[in-house]
Amino acid sequence: MRTMIARWIGVATLGLGLATIPAMAQDLVVGLSAEPSSLDPHFHNLAPNNQLSAHIFGHLVMRAADQTLIPGLAESWRVVDPLTWEFRLRKGVTFHDGTPFTVDDVIATFERVPTVPRSPSNFSSYTRGRQITKIDDHTMRITTGVPSPLLPNDFTAVAIIPKGVKDATTEDFNARKTTNGTGPYRILDYVQGDRTVLERNDAWWGPKPHYKRVTLRVIRSEPSRVAALLAGDVDVIEAVPTTDVARLKADQRLSVFEATGSRLIYFKMEMNRSPAPFVTAKDGSRIDNPFLDRRVRLALSKAINREAIVARIMDGAARPAGQFVPDFIFGASPSLRPERFDLEGARKLLAEAGYPNGFRMTIFGPNGRYVNDTKVIEAIAQMFTRAGVDTAIETLPPANFFSRASQGADGWPEFGMYLTGWGSSTGEGSDPLRNIAASFDAANGFGQSNRSRYSNAKVDELLKKAIATMDDTERGKLLAETNNVAFADQAIVPIHFQVNIWAAKKGITVIPRVDEWTLLTGISKQ
Amino acid sequence: MTDIPLASSQINQGVPVIPKEETPFTRFRKAFVEDKVAVAGLILFSIIVALALLAPLITPQNPYDLRSVDIMDSRLSPGSKAGDGFTTWLGTDGVGRDLYSGILYGLRISLMVGALSGIIAASIGMAVGLTAAYAGGRVETILMRIVDLQLSLPAVLIALILVAALGKGVDKIIFALVVVQWAYYARTVRGTALVERRKEYVEAAQSLGLSNARVVFRHIMPNCLAPVIVIITVQTAHAIALEATLSFLGVGLPQTEPSLGVLIANGFQYMLSGKYWISFFPGLALLLTIVSINLMGDRIRDVLNPRLEK
Amino acid sequence: MLAFILRRLGQAMLVIGAMVVIVFFGVNVIGDPVWMLISPEMDQNAIEATKVALGLDKPIWEQFIYFVGGALQGDMGRSFVHGEPAIKLILSRMPATMELALVALLMAVFIGLPLGVYAGLKPESRISKSIMAISILGFSLPTFWVGLMLIMFFSVMLGWLPATGRGDTVRVLGIETSLFSWNGWTYIALPALNLALLKISLVIRLARAGVREAALMDYVKFARAKGLSQTRIVGVHILKNIMIPIVTVLGLEFGSLVAFSVVTETIFAWPGMGKLLLEAIQRLDRPVIVAYVMVVVVLFVAINLIVDVMYSILDPRVRLTEARA
User: Fold this and answer.
1) Which of C230-239 are b and which e, b meaning 16 or more Cβ less than 10 Å from the residue's Cβ?
2) What is the ipTM score, two decimals?
3) For residues A64 and A328, is the Cβ–Cβ distance under 8 A?
4) Residues C183-212: pLDDT tens digits?
5) What residues of A are in contact with residue C186 (Cβ under 8 Å)?
6) Chain C residues with CB inside 8 Å of B285's CB?
7) What is the reported pTM?
8) B198-226, pLDDT tens digit by residue?
9) Do A223 and B271 touch (CB under 8 A)?
């Protein structure tokens, strides 16, 4: 009996061993944290979609790991006059099916972008008002209605499709009928909700990626993703939970790769109405909106021990923040530092502002949207409470949170003070200023996420000047100045920048990226 | 005044002592204590309830008071000294909450949530199931279709809608758990009652002219109790675990007033990190509670079941 | 019998209708899908364009009428997130969930029933007490916690089974299934066990309770007196009698297995419709939620129908009463 069982186990483990047999040297399995909603590169402006598009379709301009712009399908670009850009396209590039890539494909792409039916968030903000004129097959001029220094940044978001599939539907792409690009990988198999299998495009114009066949598997549950790596099911994982970093670093069989990201975690406070929602005196009676006083905003910022949050909540995987973008990003101010923890100073400022006994409030935040978001909110509630502001917290599922944060029952943003995050999608500093710090002007695309309705004429003026300045150095200075003005006024209470973390089996190298993307071109074996 | 002793002495003298009629409760108690395991369960459960009730008196920290919880104390291993000077015998969690204090306070919430939601759901479920089985016809059809409706709605979706509509809180989660659970009882009770109502004793009761309510509640219901008690012991425990799952999905109880379920859900992300205590001790507390409930439940079921009497 | 089934189907349509109304408006209570779909940088024009493209610019009741109009013509709407027909998405994920629930159900029966019958026949034995004690574990720990423990033990420590995902699938009778390959079974073993644990405990308890009762019944005593073998008594007389509650409960539980697969599928990255539902709920992808609920209701009604028909087969005393009503 015993031998029979032993044999049975033997057979079982043998079979199982086969199931999890290490793949061939040029094969790679990557565990991703989120899945694309579609294979159509122009359907949904969502990070996982864009990340996959970068592999299959390719962009005119690309962002390096540190977010500086590098040539993609465009070899070079220059400003002809403030309203005209000239792009020279790479020669000898072919799509996966062998057709050569020319300006006509770019024109077709720009025609398709605004017309994708039922697109939940399309890419037309990158193409609108930009007229392409073909000079020759590999040269084009783009005229813009207003000076557009950020046009190359915008082009990092638009995936190029061949002109032949201009009229293809989203379903055609999902069925892999038209997933024909110039990218470093072509798609072999796609099982929605499970996996995407890619094969290296050996005709790609760039340096040949190391892995020939790559399976992208979506494992959303964080501990499961880590377990899959520990069990050897996957070779690389992205978005490593901060709690497990220490253990993975200590593991001889694994390597960990980190880069400070551009995603800022911060608090916003109601700056338009009085009284502020969910803010009362300690006895529950009505008080005027305390956030309208700059000293209160500064006091709250001083009450936060950012170093403690980084060390105790984020396990070191964050950097204290003092402005909208980390200092290595274009447009950051060299003079802004994270506010220092100063409990006495916070209490003093509150007293000066007329709140010697503090007040009472409920702060809100999403649960599961940002790294350790719930714990960060809870820790900050502790800190505010110690400074005299009795703080309760309410964390909500993101679906519920963002809806209420944007528009409550009365049509106004519902929360008085809440935590949220912002990652610069253009890879430079004007993006968060424009969306968060600029006065709310929905029609013109300013202050789109400025739910606190903060408004500072000086910020608006400097920012508008900056984004119309073609000269990079000059623009950088203006953006830094805008940051200075906004933070002198405590427009928001910044907490930290998240650190992006990857882990891989020993011997595999991952180039960690500021923008959280996992790019196969950056994964190699020593 | 003198009549009574006289009367009693007369009885004593006149006839042999008749054993005093046992009340059902005494009989139940005697049968219950026959099983040593069940008694152990009762003792364990009493200790747990006592600890939960006495929590404010015997814990070094009020885990609901953000002033006394400090992230500088986060993730201390069991036996370390916290910043306030007390020893955290079970360690602290990710935001610096003393786990011993957190568990005792959390027990109060979890026990309340489990018991209340179980009792309310079982009562509603039994009422619906019995009515459906006894009334039959159109009433049964309508009731059972409502049950179908309920059972096919995913619990997560219900909880999410309720949390969105009502907000977070203990009362809301109890409401959500009742909504999720009552239909199980209804379906099971109806199944058993359908069999019972065709038995001779029901016909006999009906032919005696007893009212419908009396037939249902005095005759059919006791005979349906066995499966209900099986489910209630399982389901009460399950309700506590379900609450943990809802917290895991972000729609459970508020973070700052954690139940055992919230503590376990929060500890989930530490399971691979080596900081075992953050999820282990709340899990152990949950396990002991549920084991004690079930040890008692098993015995109660055996004792109450009329058909097991020898 | 036929009239009974037809009547049931008619009722099912009503149930589905009621359900769609509840879910459609319920999702609306959670929040406005627009905020989950747009990218936060979009300007107001683009947001308005999205609303119009998805029909979210209209009042909710108008959206509902539009939906009903489409549904009557067989169009259940398209996923906001994926742009594909919602029913197609659900159906493409359904086989994975079904095979998971089926394997879990089989585990519940084939592990739970023998253990429960044994515990019922010898209630005082040490083994029986251990069975009962261990069965408590099955429902006292949250599914997500046990799931990760299973992964830790069998995948990370022992390295026997893959941690997450679904194995190779083959097409059998037009359905993609992973049950016809050894590789597929290695992948399904852990999630199915995780999903089955609660049901195993439940079956053990029901079987034990049923056997203990049945063992004292006159017909069993009579059978014993007649000198029938223990095997025959248990196998024929007792088992037949305890099957009714077990069939009821399992019938119900198959549905709850499908519903609870949400958590298991998330932990094990199992590409089934539970995971799809959770993602749809998180993104307020209403067409997918509504389609999911419709599919599940149809499934439940079918299962309940089968359970009721099984009643009448297992116990002739129960007639399909509604046929007369």
Assistant:
1) eeebbeebbb
2) 0.84
3) no
4) 888 899 999 999 998 888 888 888 887 887
5) 15-16, 19-20
6) none
7) 0.86
8) 777 777 777 777 777 777 777 777 777 77
9) yes
